Amino acid sequence: MNWPEKVTIKEVGPRDGLQNEKVIIPTQRKIDWINQLSDTGLSYIEATSFVHPKWIPQLSDAVEVAKGINRNPDITYAALVPNQRGLESALEADIDEISVFMSSSETHNLKNINKTISDTFPVLKEVIDSAARSRKSVRGYVSTVFGCPYEGEVSIEQVFKVCDQLFEYGINELSLGDTIGVASPRQVALFLEQAVKRYDIDRIALHFHDTRGMALANVLKSLDYGIKTFDSALGGLGGCPYAPGASGNVATDDLIHMLHNMGIHTGIDQGKLIGAASMMQRFLEKPLPSHQMAVYNAQ
User: Fold this and answer.
1) Which intervals of the chain form a coiled coil (predicted)?
2) What pTM was computed for the model?
3) Is the pLDDT assigned to residue 243 strictly greater than 60?
């Protein structure tokens, strides 16, 4: 077992979690929740998305949220940015890190972005270049790495083609997404066996969804390959509007419980994390789907 001593957790609940909720959380409640998340020991919070409100109405208040939160200087506050117009709003809101996104499968990219993969590249290059000129770090998301809801299995070569281009454009970190939660530890191992030889693993993060209950097992397999950065959403919030049946992200609270009991440090306070999850339960008026919150709610 060659597990890292410390792992970085990137909390994506305020964006990836809330964008799939039918209930639209009022702006001030989003701000209150992010402020509480900022007090848990997290070092990274993806606060919102500057996608056009027509596509993601749940996050139409992105500028207000980003400007309204209490910034902790020890935390990177990130946001999803689809194009140059979105970048202008993100810069106005003084977001710390810009996240660009695309899919490795053609059909999902068309459904999600309304563009082919080849047509998406120049749009993202413009965003990456502009963000760099504004001295903002850039994170790249690649979806459907382990399977597409429309095309099925996606070849590793196709995934690498997209990843190579984003790194060539100058992104700082790449997050590889199991968008529909189809991956198994064996599939993760086969992919990472090649990926760790091709890329600097310190610039790779994994983004697992728990649709089939495999997310923690896939995190564990990723640790075997030296991966030290994972995306998660508190309480298991999330999903993908363009991936039918995809449930939420791996739950931050479940992930922290596993890592801490393995002796792997995260810097995150479990008690404060549960407090933040409890707050969102009240806002949504329903229990969050994570195992830790099921235990908490039963007490």
Assistant:
1) none
2) 0.96
3) no
